[in-house]
């Protein structure tokens, strides 16, 4: 991949060096979007607008020699020169200038920076060959993880104490998730006869509505309900209670904590008017 020849970058001078002692010694990526261009001697570096000034970002062109990537454009040159000795500036008399570019320079790609023939030395003498230097990028490409919504337990919305379906505002079958969905599954256990689902023989409670609800039976049912609630994938703690008043009306309470740290509190009371929950 190469860029078209720009004005000021035309070939000129002797092939093995010409003009002053100014030439491009080397280049090295010192940061993700910074290239240190090292000159063999001090170039003119007075103005970012100077046509022959090394601080003018338009006097640099960067191409990709090996690999495939987006074209890189030079933006600006740091106002501070880097004298010997410094990182990349390894010979006495050399001077480095830090060139900023518009995108990360990627490891695995080989780049070439080319300096315009218009650049002159600090003494006003023209630059000689070599005008270019190759370097390797400094940024390792990263794979950005795809952001996905974490979906919990989602169920069709129903009322375990009433028949029928629940329809949302769009006219579709509503759904239950989070704490409301957990409450519904708790009451589904409590209102299902043990063995009512042939594919889940241990689901539900062993109730017999024709037998008296003795204290011993209520204790057994409460223990079974607690154990089954704790088997739910989103429940980490649970406790149940059952109270029957003198009229024979039953109230079941459930308290717990979900895996997301939310508290679970729900109660169902059986009265002459039916079952009420909260």
Quick take:
This protein has 278 residues and is mainly β. 10% of the residues lie in helices and 30% in strands.
Structure commentary:
This protein folds into 2 domains: 24-136, Immunoglobulin-like, CATH 2.60.40; 154-277, Nuclear Transport Factor 2, Chain: A (Roll). The protein is 10% helix and 30% strand. It has helices at residues 178-190, 215-230; strands at 24-31, 34-39, 60-66, 74-77, 82-83, 95-101, 110-115, 132-136, 154-156, 175-177, 235-244, 250-258, 263-271, 274-277. Strands 1, 2, 4, 5 and 6 form a 5-stranded antiparallel β-sheet that branches. A 4-stranded antiparallel β-sheet has the order 11-12-13-14, covered by helices on one side. It has a 3-stranded antiparallel β-sheet with strand order 3-7-8, with no helix packed on it. Strand 1 and strand 2 (34-39) form a beta hairpin. The model is unreliable at 11-19 (pLDDT under 50).
């Amino acid at each position: 991949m190469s860029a078209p020849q720009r004005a000021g970058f035309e070939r000129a001078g002797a092939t093995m060096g010409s003009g002053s002692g100014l030439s491009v010694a080397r280049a090295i990526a010192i940061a993700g979007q910074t290239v240190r261009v090292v000159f063999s001697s001090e170039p003119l570096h007075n103005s970012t607008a100077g046509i022959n000034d090394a601080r003018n970002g338009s006097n640099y062109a960067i191409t990709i020699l090996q690999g495939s990537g987006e074209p890189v454009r030079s933006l600006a040159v740091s106002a501070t020169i880097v004298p010997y000795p410094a990182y990349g500036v390894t010979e006495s008399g050399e001077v480095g200038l830090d060139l900023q570019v518009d995108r990360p320079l990627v490891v695995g790609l080989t780049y070439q920076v080319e300096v315009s023939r218009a650049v002159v030395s600090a003494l006003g003498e023209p630059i000689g060959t070599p005008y270019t230097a190759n370097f390797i990028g400094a940024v390792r490409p990263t794979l950005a993880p795809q952001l996905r919504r974490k979906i919990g337990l989602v169920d069709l919305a129903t009322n375990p104490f009433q028949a029928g379906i629940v329809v949302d505002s769009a006219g579709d079958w509503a759904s239950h998730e989070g704490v409301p969905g957990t409450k519904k599954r708790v009451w589904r256990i409590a209102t299902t006869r043990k063995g009512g689902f042939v594919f889940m023989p241990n689901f539900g409670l062993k109730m017999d509505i024709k037998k008296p609800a003795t204290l011993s039976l209520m204790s057994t049912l409460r223990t079974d309900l607690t154990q089954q609630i704790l088997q739910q994938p989103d429940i980490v703690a649970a406790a149940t209670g059952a109270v029957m008043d003198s009229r024979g009306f039953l109230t079941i309470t459930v308290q717990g904590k979900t895996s997301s740290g939310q508290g679970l509190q729900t109660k169902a009371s059986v009265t002459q008017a039916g079952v009420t929950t909260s």
